[in-house]
Amino acid sequence: MLGKELRELRERKKRLAEEGASTTDDVDSYTAEAVSAKLGFSRSKLSRVEGGEIPLPKLADLEALLDEYGVREPSDRDVLLQMQRDSLKSEPLTTFRNVLPSGMPRYLGLERESVRIRGYENNVVHGLLQDAAYARALMGSAKIVEERTTDAVERSVQARTERKRLLEGGREVHIILTESALRTLVGSPEVMRGQYAEIIRLCQQDNVEVQIIPEAMSTYRSGFSFTVLDFDELDSVVQSDGYRSITMWSKPSDVGQYQRQFDAMAKAAPGPSQTASFLTELEEKLWT
Q1: Which whole-number Å values give the CA distances from 28 to 4, 25, 102, in the listed order?
Q2: Cβ–Cβ under 8 Å, residues 192 and 287
Q3: pTM for the whole thing?
Q4: Coil, helix or strand for 119?
Q5: What's the Cα-to-Cα distance from 59 to each of 33, 56, 75, 260, rounded to whole Å?
Q6: What is the pLDDT of residues 191-201, one digit of tens each?
Q7: Per-residue DSSP letter, 230
Q8: CA-CA distances (angstroms) from residue 128 to 62, 101, 131, 253?
Q9: Digit-coded pLDDT (tens) for 46-61
């Protein structure tokens, strides 16, 4: 996560130079090789750090990079310094700050780099499957409790819509939902009908599979929602939600436990080919 954040910060500086936002910065000065040379790193060091291949154990190296990328805000620097400390630990990481200095929420930065996503959701429709109306109603219902402005809700809806572009590529996405999550009224019956139609539409894509665990089925269900992210050259990680926090699990034994939970539910639930008919029947029963 630290490496990906540093890469995003470097590329942001490069984009600003390309757009002419800075009269002193040269585009070529923000390649990984150029920054490495300027800070006295070996040629491949920064590229390997950004790729998550090696850690960045020296605090002075991180501070030099933050200075180079113009990260001045103390709270932003503190987030990255804490991330650097966490990267040297083996314990799971919990964050109470959703947005990093690059503007990219921590989990979404990892999700964007994944090659396979396996998610389980037992309360609401998984974020990658939500349509705009459902997301707006869901976030709007928590507007007062979470002290969000209408503008903040709309920005969140837009971000969630843009996030769904992940489904347009070849990335394998497999989501398991419980029937109870789909029975929970969010917004209005019209919103629910639209959300069901969106799930059916997404299921028609070759890279997307959705399974639903019926309420009447006696089988294992995890008590917590979670998502497993797989990468090409990095070990898998798991994200699980808690109250105002996100916990990332990277220890193989922890990740393996979540993978076994997902596999057990995927094996027991009706196959993805039955999802469309299940939703059609549920819509006729609940929302017509």
Answers
A1: 20, 9, 20
A2: yes
A3: 0.71
A4: strand
A5: 20, 8, 16, 37
A6: 999 999 999 99
A7: E
A8: 33, 24, 9, 26
A9: 888 888 778 888 889 9
